[in-house]
Design brief:
By secondary structure, the chain is an alpha/beta fold. The protein is built from eight helices and eight strands; from the N terminus they run βααβαβαββαβαααββ. The chain has an eight-stranded mixed beta sheet with strand order 1-4-3-2-5-6-8-7, sandwiched between helices. The longest helix is centred in the last third of the chain and has 17 residues.
Length: about 260
């Protein structure tokens, strides 16, 4: 098995979107290239973290149709995508704006002997046809999206009716004690642990609250969501109703 790197798609010119907090976000993921991206991949690739991703992947595929199509948006190094593919119960695709992460996902998939189709692209202009996936997942990335509302709309567009989008990210309300506990469980050395705590404190300032995610959902074709909080993070579940339209209100931007 091997990773497939698909050609880069061209996208429509992005429109400015404002977060529920009222501020337009500049995309922060562009810096995740080259040596910085590879440093991040090493930090996120500890044995304990991979074990956690394996557990999450096994839970994720429960209830999916046989050989479901799963899309991970902004997979970073792709450890979670690899674990989903390793279950053998889904066809996995990953899309990231970072060219280096696209390379790393491919490397990790090949090393694991699994198939992951990897594409370079933007969450606000996903380079896929309408109704292409049964499940869309995004971990620890949504706070960095420059156009978060449009990204939610795109999740709706590429989902099949009855499909689900699951966004897992840091919570703006995460307490300091929860950050310390989270980093302690990563199995990092003292210096890496210090840097990771600093990074998480900085990322928390960019993260969203449960109420903000609920507003994103109400404004989108999903029209609602379920939010669960735990530790430093939260999970947002958005379901595309069966029999619903395959396209979103941003359909005019979705000709890929």
């Amino acid at each position: 098995m091997s990773a497939t790197v698909l050609p880069t798609a061209s996208h429509a010119t992005p429109r400015n979107e404002r977060s529920p907090a009222g501020a337009t976000k500049a995309y922060r993921g562009v810096a995740m290239e080259g040596v910085i991206a590879r440093w991040y991949a090493r930090t996120r690739g500890t044995a304990s973290q991979r074990q956690d991703w394996r557990r999450q992947a096994e839970e994720l595929v429960v209830g999916l149709p046989p050989q479901a199509d799963v899309l991970e948006v902004a997979p970073g190094p792709g450890y979670f995508a690899v674990e989903i593919a390793r279950t053998g119960r889904a066809r996995v695709t990953a899309v990231d704006i970072s060219r280096t992460f696209v390379e790393i996902v491919g490397e990790n998939a090949r090393a694991a002997g699994v198939s992951v189709a990897v594409r370079q692209g933007d969450a606000a202009h996903l380079p896929f046809e309408d109704a292409s996936f049964d499940l869309v997942v995004s971990q620890a990335a949504f706070k960095n999206f420059a156009q978060p509302q449009q990204a939610v709309d795109e999740f709706y567009r590429v989902l099949r009716p009855g499909g689900c989008a699951r966004i897992q990210d840091m919570s703006h309300d995460a307490p300091d004690a929860a950050i310390r506990e989270e980093v302690a469980g990563m199995g990092l050395g003292r210096f890496r642990a210090f840097l990771t705590r600093r990074t998480l404190h900085a990322l928390r300032r960019r993260a969203y609250t449960s109420r903000q995610f609920e507003q994103f959902a109400r404004t989108s074709p999903f029209q609602g969501c379920e939010v669960r909080t735990s530790g430093i993070g939260l999970e947002v579940r958005l379901v595309k109703p069966r029999g619903s339209s395959t396209t979103s209100s941003n359909d005019s931007l979705s000709a890929h």
